[in-house]
Specification:
The chain is mainly β. The protein has one domain. It is 2% helix and 58% strand. It contains one helix and 16 strands. Strands 8-7-6-5-4-3-2-1-16-15-14-13-12-9 form a 14-stranded antiparallel sheet. The two termini are 14 Å apart.
Length: 231
C-alpha cells in the first residue's frame, strides 16, 4: 500500500515541568496528500481521555473527524464531523444535549478544525503567509468541537475565529531531538495570546513545543518515528 506513517508522543507539562498528561499519536499519510491522525489525549489532573481520529487534505484543511471524550470515567459525548465546501456538519450523542445533528453554512471552506488534540493545533496555520512583516493574519473560518479550554464538552460544532502571527524559522531542542522549527503565535480577536507554538519546518508539521497561557502549561515532543518520504 502506498502510504507512510509517523508515530510520536507529546508530553503535557505543568509550569514547573512536571508531567500532567500525554498524547500518543499515529499519522498515516496517503499518496494523494490526505493524512489521518489518531491521537489519544490523557490529562491526569482533570481525568480527561479524548480520542480523535481526524483526516485532512494535502493542504491540512479538514475532511472529517471522530471525537469521543470521557472525564472522571464517564462519557461526555462522541460525535462525527464532516466538512464539504462551505458546509460543516456533525452527528453525535452527548450527555448534556442527547442526540445531536448540526449543519452550518460557513463563509468559505473550513481552514482548519479545533479538535483539542494538541498535535493538530499546529496545523491551523499551515496556509498562512510565511512572512513576519505581515503581523496578524486572520484564519477564517475555523470550526471547533468545544469552546472550553480543556475541550471537555460536546463534542459539537461551534466557530472560533483566530489570527496568527508568523515569527519565523528557528532551531530548537526538545526531548525528541533538535529540529528546524516554524514558530507561530495564535492570537485571540481581543489581541491576547492563545497559543505559542513550534512545529517541524517540513511537510509533516509535527508539534515540537507549545505554550498555553490559559493554564500556564507546556507541551513537548517526547519521541518521534517516521517513515522516510519516497518517490
Amino acid at each position: 500500500m502506498k502510504h507512510r506513517e509517523l508515530r510520536y508522543d507529546i508530553d503535557y507539562l505543568t509550569a514547573d515541568g512536571a508531567k500532567r498528561g500525554q498524547e500518543p499519536c499515529t499519522v498515516t499519510v496517503h499518496e494523494d496528500g490526505q493524512r489521518t491522525i489518531r491521537a489519544r489525549s490523557e490529562i491526569f489532573d482533570t481525568e480527561i481521555v479524548r480520542d480523535v481520529v481526524y483526516t485532512v487534505d494535502a493542504a491540512f484543511r479538514p475532511v472529517d473527524c471522530f471525537i469521543r471524550v470521557r472525564q472522571y470515567d464517564k462519557v461526555i459525548g462522541s460525535t462525527w464531523f464532516r466538512f464539504d465546501g462551505d458546509r460543516a456538519e456533525c452527528e453525535g450523542f452527548t450527555t448534556n444535549e442527547g442526540r445531536i445533528s448540526q449543519s452550518f453554512d460557513l463563509s468559505g471552506p473550513a481552514q482548519s478544525f479545533i479538535t483539542h488534540a494538541v498535535a493538530t493545533d499546529v496545523w491551523h496555520c499551515a496556509n498562512i503567509k510565511k512572512d513576519p512583516s505581515l503581523g496578524r493574519q486572520l484564519i477564517d473560518p475555523i470550526p471547533c468541537c468545544s469552546p472550553l479550554a480543556n475541550g471537555a464538552s460536546g463534542p459539537m460544532l461551534g466557530l472560533w475565529p483566530m489570527t496568527a502571527e508568523y515569527i519565523g524559522v528557528e532551531t530548537i531542542e526538545v526531548p525528541a531531538g533538535t529540529f528546524e522549527a516554524e514558530h507561530v503565535r495564535y492570537v485571540e480577536m481581543d489581541g491576547s495570546l492563545w497559543l505559542e507554538m513550534w512545529c517541524t519546518n517540513d511537510a509533516d508539521r509535527v508539534m515540537l513545543k507549545m505554550h498555553y497561557p490559559v493554564y500556564n502549561t507546556g507541551y513537548v515532543l517526547a519521541g518521534l518515528q517516521r517513515d522516510p518520504v519516497t518517490g
